[in-house]
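Read as amino acids, tokens; as here:

___
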Amino acid sequence: MSKKEYVFTRNVEVKEETYIWANSYEEAEDIYTSGGGDTEEVEFNGGDWECIDNPDELEEVVDDE
């Protein structure tokens, strides 16, 4: 029996907080947008997943006809 490809998708939400020491908001924004600062993950949601391409379902439809 040959292998079939199954495709799964999952939405993941990660919430981070970035701590930056700066002299002004503009400076802090520049540091943040350039990847600076101290970032910590504060929340993670693995989300829902689903199979978006299941070749077995196609075979079932063909078998039923």
Notes: Residues 9 and 50 are 6 Å apart (CA to CA). Residues 55-64 form the longest helix (10 residues).
